[in-house]
Structure formats: C-alpha cells, structure tokens
Amino acid sequence: MSTYLFISDEKAFMEPHNDIISTAMVVIGFVIFAAILLKTYLTYNDNSLALENYRQAALIANDVAGYPAIQGSRQDLISAHALDSIAMPAADREMHSDFFHRFSSNADFFVDVRTDDGSHTWIIDRYETSSPEGDIIAASVPVVIELGNNARCVPGTVTVRLRKNKWT
Amino acid sequence: MKVKPCSQKSTPQKYRFHFIADDRGWIDLLLSKVALIFASIIILAALYHLAADAGRMNQDRQLDAIAQDFRSAIDSAGKSSYEAGGKVYFFDAYKKHGSFSSGLNASVSGEYVSVSFQEKGRRYSSVKPLTYKTLPLSEDEVRGELTGAFSANGNISQPIPASYGYTAVTGFLAALGTKEENLNTSIEVHIEKTLIYIHNLNGTEVKELEYILVHQ
What we know:
heterodimer, A: 168 residues, alpha+beta, five-stranded mixed β-sheet, 4 helices, rod-shaped, B: 216 residues, four-stranded mixed β-sheet, 5 helices, 8 strands, 23% strand
C-alpha cells in the first residue's frame, strides 16, 4: 500500500533534489575509484621496490658466497674457520674490515651463515650494534661449509639481510 | 502563489515574510544548480589532475627503470672478478624507444647514480644507491691522483707505502668519490673494476682495495 502511494505520489517534492543525489553518487563513486587507483599504485610501488631490493640482496649473497677470503680448501667450499674470524664478535678485525670495505656504506646489510642442521650459525655485521629499525629484505644462496680441520663438509645457507631505510 | 497582506508591519519585516511565504521554490532550484555546477567543476578538475599525475607517474617509472638498469650494470661489474675486464654501457636503448628522445641527464658519484629529465619546466629524477664503492674517474685519473697524494700509483708494482696509513688512503678515495660526475647519455659509459694496493704496517704484504670506475 505504502509502495503504491510512493509511486503514485505526484507532489514531486523530491524532484528538485534529484541532481543533488545523482551528483553525490558520482562524487562518492569518483572518490572510491581514486582510492582504489591509489591503493593499486602503492601496492605496485611497494612490490617493485621489494623486487629491486631483493635483487640487490641476491647479488650481495652471491658475492659473499664466492668471496675468496672465506673459501675453504676448494673454491666451492666456505671455511668455518674463516667465518669464525669475521663473525660477530670479530676475532680478526682487519679481515672483518676488508670483508665490508668494497661495499658502499649505502649497502646496509648483515650476513647470516648457518648450517642446514642448525648446529652452527655465524652473523657477520658491519657494526657491533645495529638498530633494528626499518624493513629487512633477505636473499639466500645454498653453500657447502667446511667444518674444522677434518674437512667435514655440511650443507648450509648464506643469507644476506638488507636493512632498508624509508628513503632507500 | 498566495502572499498574505501585512500592512501593519514595517518594510523589512514585510520582505522577510514575503520571502518565507514564497512557495515557488526558485531558490531551491538555484541552490541545487549552483551546487551541481560546483561539484562538476571539482570532479572535472580532479579527473584532469588524475590524468596529469598518471602521465607524471609514467615518466617517473621510466626514469626509475633507467636508473635501476644503470645501477645494475655498475653493481654487476662490482660482483665480477677483476680479470673479467670492464664493460661498456649505453643509454641508447631508452632514448630510441622511450619518451626521452633528448634531454636525458645522468650522473654518478661514489655512492649513487642519478638520472633526470627536464620537460616543460618540470624536472623528473631518479636516484639509486650503489652497492659497491665507486669512483667517477678513469683508471689514469685515479692513478694520477694517488701518485700526487701518496707518491705511488697503487699498482701491484707500486703499492702505496704503509707510512701514509690505511685510513688516509681510504679517506682520500672516499673524498674522490664525493664528486658527482655528469655523464653524456649520447655516448658510451665505461665501467671497470680496479684494484689499489697498499702495503700493510710491517711492509711485508700488500692489501688490495676494490673500486668500480665509471667514466667516459
């Protein structure tokens, strides 16, 4: 009954406001469209930055895995003894400084080397105390680590964790 | 329309009463049309800005890709061994197919690469930090600077004497890297790795320092 009354109502009291309502709908639609567009762009930007940083981390990880100063008895092995010298706290300060020298100070990262069974872990960081602020982007490469003098080789991973500031 | 006469009231009150009692709805119509015009102008302006911003974002994205490509070329030279030799980098690929047919500027310093483009008084730029220590100089220039400062060019045959100190040498090289070098994007850029040798404190061994050289 009430629906019928509404349809058959010819007083047209809503008539002058039709354009206001339609304009409000267009504005709301436009705001939603702009918000979706902005969100898509921000997501795309975040993803492309993450991919770019991942590439940089992967490049450093490959470089570290092939760094001659930490090589074992063979070129494809990493010496645990050399890792002991440069891992925190660094026993050999000079070797530790040489390890980071070729990298620009913009490349703020630390290296985490560990055996797959979790029995050995080495953290190689440029600074003694590092601030945990900012995002971390990591890339890993598989390696073989030579433990001790008895040439026992175990599989492991070299992980480079890049610390990213807001502006980089 | 019916307007009640109100002869007893003063003139302003009469007008006000006339305004309130007026049920023709013309002011309603006027207000709604003005609101509609304003809203249309705002929406059109917002759409125009959105389209303009999309164009600018596209330029930024292209510049970002160029800077990233140039940075990757320098970083990959840093990762490769010294024996691998240098490489030559061209900006041409972007100039032919991209929207930067002219006016693409590039510069390199010890810490970052920068690519910029100027169009209609607006400057677009993209800066990327480098992974490896870099000097915007050629091999001869570096050797010349080292000879001038330390009386040795830092080659394997002529390492820098230990008396100067390791930090003095690295500080000197870091200072060389702070100078930003503008590159001509029409010609090739040479990227190579160099080794600078320094005697250690007891003078028995030499230590090598790796640097990437970017020059034209």
